[in-house]
Design goal:
Chain lengths: ~110, ~400
């Protein structure tokens, strides 16, 4: 029986070679840059990250960098002043694979790895 | 912030606990919270009496004749490790199922990976049930045990353990049942069903705290000691006690947990296992019916739960088209105050067979305190999510 192994791959984003996991999350949150977020957003089908989306991304990053973890669901709602349904619609890939991934937060692989 | 929490993650841990359980734990522990069965002071004797009484209660509850063969541990996973490790010898073969939780799969995978055993897995059908003949077909001359779940923690299907036990008995193979999801919801009479050992946990449908569970072993099944230490008996010997239950218990028991387990079981017995199950299955049918009509919602299992509730526990896993299950769980929690479990539920092979292994699913699981109003809130929330995202 095969043992599941979380894999990573090196790819160049916004001119820098960076490791991503198998779901496209930054392997190391410190590798994140605004330019990389913009490029990943374009890959997701967005022409650009507008002010509202940047507000979400900046809240996620600042919260993560201060607390060392992603915000609770209710904190995400309060911090962005958006419902989670609105957040889901705001990013083509949703909250986890959209907002959180573009913000460079770790992959929340709860009960998946 | 949503004020009210609708808690539908009872298959992980029942919450809240019945009135009186937590208070009773604190009061009893404050009175006799010492090392049970150690020393000769009265407090130790009283604590030991409480533990013995709880062993007797557990034995009666599971239809086992010998309370000394009730072994306390941390949870079902702990108990399964105890029984699996104490049963198998190099060269043995073990059968499990693709419905099993990692509490069964991982110990067996480890033993197979280190060359101790070989193992096979019985499949489940489209309804989520294991065919007893499929289990029988996997038995070999060197099969040491069949270890399997009683009720799937993903699909909620209750497995035909009596029929499987009969097939095992014909070949002289003990059946070890993981009752993590069924104990307290499905009557388990080990003697009548022909089950050799049951692993249970206290923090699910027995309404005790986390950190307490155990193993019930029928007479005639030999489970070797695999952990060693103090028992309060035979202390001059460096050999671990071989009398039951001490042969499988090392170190001071979780007395607080034993107290809570007993109080939780008292609640279950006063309510009645069948009554609790019937009430929760009626609510599950309400949930299933409320979600089944939406084209954006896929239901896994529970197909015949309404027609045959006796073969199910109140668990329903779903997916919403176009949205990651983790996002569904976050939205349910953040926007609607509804707590569910997302992921693969520590049952990876079930999700592989369902085709949901990459992202998992959203699991609703009901408890004794779930209400029809809460189910209706969950249905409404799911319709909003599925309608909004897929529109």
């Amino acid at each position: 029986m095969a043992e599941p192994v979380r894999s990573r791959a090196l790819r160049t984003v916004a001119g820098r070679a960076v490791y991503f996991d198998d779901e496209g999350f930054f392997w190391d949150p410190d590798d994140w840059t605004e330019a990389a977020a913009e490029e990943l957003a374009r890959e997701s089908g967005m022409t650009r990250l507008d002010d509202l989306r940047w507000r979400v991304i900046r809240f996620l990053r600042s919260y993560y960098l201060y607390h060392g973890r992603a915000p609770l669901n209710r904190e995400l709602k309060a911090g962005t002043e958006l419902s989670l349904l609105e957040l889901e619609r705001l990013f083509p890939d949703g909250i986890k694979l959209g907002a959180r991934r573009l913000a460079g937060l770790p992959n929340p692989r709860t009960c998946l790895d | 912030m949503t004020e009210r929490i609708v808690y539908l993650d009872n298959a992980a841990t029942t919450f809240p606990k019945p009135p009186g359980v937590l208070q009773g734990m604190v009061e009893t522990y404050a009175r006799i919270g010492v090392s049970p069965g150690r020393g000769n002071h009265d407090l130790a004797t009283q604590a030991g009496d409480l533990v013995d009484a709880t062993r007797a209660r557990v034995a009666r509850f599971f239809g086992a004749p010998d309370p000394t063969r009730v072994i306390f541990g941390a949870n079902a996973t702990d108990a399964l490790n105890t029984v699996i490790g104490g049963l198998v010898r190099p060269g043995d073969h073990v059968v499990a199922t693709r419905l099993d939780h990692n509490s069964v799969l991982r110990p067996l995978h480890h033993l197979a990976g280190t060359g101790v055993i070989t193992w096979d897995l019985a499949p489940f059908d489209d309804g989520g049930f294991v065919d007893p003949d499929a289990v029988a077909a996997l038995l070999r001359p060197n099969t040491r045990a069949v270890v399997m779940t009683h009720a799937s923690n993903v699909l909620g299907t209750v497995q035909p353990v009596a029929e499987i036990a009969r097939r095992c008995a014909e070949r002289g193979v003990p059946l070890v049942v993981d009752a993590a999801q069924s104990a307290g919801l499905v009557p388990i009479d080990m003697a009548a069903l022909g089950i050799s050992a049951v692993a249970f946990t206290g923090h699910k449908s027995l309404y005790g705290p986390s950190g307490i569970g155990g193993l019930v072993v029928m007479p005639g099944l030999d489970v070797a000691t695999t952990r060693f230490g103090g028992t309060g008996m035979d202390s001059t010997s460096l050999t671990h006690s071989q009398s039951w239950p001490l042969r499988l218990e090392a170190g001071t028991l979780n007395l607080m947990g034993v107290i809570g387990l007993s109080l939780g079981m008292d609640f279950v017995e006063r309510q009645g296992v069948e009554a609790l199950h019937a009430r929760e299955m009626a609510l599950l049918a309400r949930l299933r019916d409320g979600l089944s009509g939406h084209p954006g919602i896929t239901l896994h299992g529970a197909r015949d739960a309404g027609a045959d509730p006796a073969r199910h526990v109140p668990v329903l896993s779903v997916n919403v088209a176009g949205i990651h299950p983790q996002d569904v769980g976050a939205i349910l929690d953040g926007d609607f105050g509804i707590a569910v479990r997302v992921g693969v539920h520590c049952a990876p092979l079930v999700h592989r067979d369902l085709g949901t292994a990459d992202r998992g699913a959203v699991r609703f699981s009901l408890g004794a305190f779930t209400t029809a109003e809460e189910i209706d809130l969950a249905i409404a929330a799911m319709h909003v999510i599925a309608g909004t995202v897929s529109s």
